[in-house]
Amino acid sequence: MDDMISWMQEGGQVGIFDATNSSRARRNMLMKMAEGKCKIIFLETICNDERIIERNIRLKVQQSPDYAEEPDFEAGMRDFKTRLANYEKVYEPVEEGSYIKMIDMASGHGGQLQVNNISGYLPGRIVFFLVNTHLTPRPILLTRHGESRDNVRGRIGGDTVLSSEAGQLYSKKLANFVEKRLKSERAASIWTSTLQRTILTARPIVGFPKIQWRALDEINAGVCDGMTYEEIKKNMPEEYESRKKDKLRYRYPRGESYLDVIQRLEPVIIELERQRAPVVVISHQAVLRALYAYFADRPLKEIPHIEVPLHTIIEIQMGVSGVQEKRYKLMD
């Protein structure tokens, strides 16, 4: 907790202090430690569904490093249930300070959210995020548009159509893949940007609703839109060097930086978290780097360098045990 508070004082915005804190005395101690330094919100999850509790205990014993050395699964189950019973003896419900209680929200059938003494922008965003998240397993498929004419010419930005061979071929291959992969998922949806290269990539996919998001448009290259990197290097050497030095924070003149893109993706991320059915996101390199980094939990500084090749699908499987990833290369 001391480490957490000093991190917050060094400029941290949201820290998650993961501990049981099941007694009033423990929580009061934490509030005293944080006084005048940072705001504390207690987050309590309450589950009354015996089946979910049993499933979670099994997952915990199977996957937790605490039981990696325990060959007898049933012995692990007994040990965990004993630990649980000991926690129950000292448990006192959260009734002090600022808190959010999530009650029976893991079942996917509604549940209840109780909020007490929450005010301010960031705490409000946290509540909004928690209302929209759930653990229903579902895949999110990320892919760039098929090769565009500007890709062929090495030009950035623009709003050109797909290249007549590779780009159009990928749109057909993607449609086949999606229809096979999601054939039993009638509630799935296809999300694209408002630029024609993503809309044309999605066109051959049938049977699913398509939604266009301006927030999924490629990073705005401002005055460099339509140029090649060679042209930027030659005509705007200072801009070229600034970008090379810090791709994350560099902002194109009259355009955007990666940090701007991350900012505008917030509503898309909240909506992706809210979805219970699969979503196929057809977008652009910078945008997909940021989305992928969010779900794969990659550090901010890595975002501009994450590999998101053309004609490849990144499938992210969201579920109880975290995030799994598969990549499908449909074309060279």
UniProtKB/TrEMBL annotation:
Keywords for this protein: ATP-binding, Nucleotide-binding
Example of a GO biological process term: fructose 2,6-bisphosphate metabolic process
Gene3D superfamilies: P-loop containing nucleotide triphosphate hydrolases (3.40.50.300), Phosphoglycerate mutase-like (3.40.50.1240)
CDD domains: HP_PGM_like
Residues covered by the 6-phosphofructo-2-kinase domain: 1-137
Highest rank taxon of the organism: Eukaryota
Record PROSITE patterns: PG_MUTASE (PS00175)
InterPro entries: 6Pfruct_kin, 6Phosfructo_kin, His_Pase_superF_clade-1, His_PPase_superfam, P-loop_NTPase, PG/BPGM_mutase_AS
Pfam families, sorted: 6PF2K, His_Phos_1
Sample GO molecular function, one term: 6-phosphofructo-2-kinase activity
UniProt xrefs under PANTHER family: 6-PHOSPHOFRUCTO-2-KINASE FAMILY PROTEIN, EXPRESSED (PTHR10606:SF76), 6-PHOSPHOFRUCTO-2-KINASE/FRUCTOSE-2,6-BISPHOSPHATASE (PTHR10606)
Name of this chain's protein: 6-phosphofructo-2-kinase/fructose-2, 6-bisphosphatase isoform X2
Gene it is expressed from: LOC104597365
